[in-house]
Amino acid sequence: MTGEQEKKRAWLCRARTAEKYVQALKEEALQYMEFAETLLLFDNSDSVKLVQKLERSMQERQKKIKELSIIQENIKKSISQMPDDRLKEILARHYLTYKTIESVAESMNYDRRTIQKKHLKALDKIIMPKESEMK
Questions:
Q1: What does the pLDDT look like over 85-98, one tens digit per residue?
Q2: Distances from the Cα of 110 to the Cαs of 1, 55, 103, in angstroms?
Q3: Residue 17: pLDDT over 70
Q4: Which of 47, 49, 72 is nearest to 129 (CA)?
Q5: CA within 20 to 30 Å of 112's CA: 39, 55, 104, 128, which one?
Q6: How far is CA 106 from CA 27, 84, 89, 102, in A?
Q7: Is the predicted pLDDT of residue 134 greater than 60, yes or no?
Q8: CA-to-CA separations, 34 to 37, 52, 58, 74, in angstroms, rounded
Q9: What whole-number distance in Å separates Cα of residue 36 and Cα of residue 18?
């Protein structure tokens, strides 16, 4: 794998990492909400301050979730713009549904080595957005 292919592969792998991070942030936000509801049962200034702090923390997490969603959308957009449908399918199955190369080969009725070669070809053809286009 060339340096450029490795760079693109790492960029595409960010979709899965982002999805896992978003899920963790959502679970954490849910815990914060439950904790805030419990705190509101107590009518004192310390509880109110803690709830306000939790709300600020939840807003920060929502901002991070939005940033991560943008990463995922950029990856989906780049894959969808792939001109070759077979190569697009390989990238989508591998990077968006998180299938292994072996699983992709089996589901597409190809040999693993054939999918590996097509995967490298797809990496050569995919266009990563410029930094300015990623926001």
A1: 999 999 999 999 99
A2: 20, 51, 10
A3: yes
A4: 72
A5: 128
A6: 34, 19, 13, 6
A7: no
A8: 5, 14, 12, 33
A9: 26
User: Token digits for 27?
Assistant: 């679970």
Structural tokens at position 121: 């070809």
Percent of the chain, pLDDT > 90?
61
Q: What is the pLDDT of residue 47?
A: 82
User: Phi/psi of residue 83, each to 5°?
Assistant: -70, -30
DSSP assignment, residue 92?
Answer: I
Looking at beta carbons, which pairs linking 17-21 to residues 24 or more positions away fall under 8 Å?
Answer: 18/68, 18/69, 18/71, 18/72, 19/68, 19/72, 21/64, 21/68
d(CA 9, CA 90): 13
Exposure string of 65-99, with b = 16+ CB inside 10 Å and e = fewer, is beebeebbebbeebbeebeeeebbbbbbbbbbeeb
Burial class (CB in 10 A: 0-12, 13-18, 19+), 15: buried
Q: How far is CA 122 from the centre of its chain?
A: 19
